[in-house]
Amino acid sequence: MTKKIAVSLPDDVAERLAREPNVSAFVARAVRRQMAGEQTRAVLSHAGFAITDEDVARAHAEMQQLAAGITPELREQATRVQTEVRAARARARR
Q: Whole-prediction pTM value?
C-alpha cells in the first residue's frame, strides 16, 4: 500500500530530486536508510553503546580528512596492488 504526501523541501534538495526519474522510490530508499540507522543505534544503545549525532559527525569529518589525503599517486599505487592481487588469485586457482 502507498500513501501520497506533500512535503516542503529546501531548494537544493528539490533540485536534486528533480533529476530523479522516480522521486518516490528515491525518497523511500533514503527514508529506509534513515530508519535502518535509527534501528542500528537502538540495538547498539541497548547493548550499551550510545552513539550520538556528534559521534557520527566526528566520524564523517575524520573520513573526509582521510579521503582528502588520497593523492592521485596513492590511487595509482592502489590500482597496481589490486591488479597484482587479482593476478595472484587467478594463478592460485589454476
A: 0.62
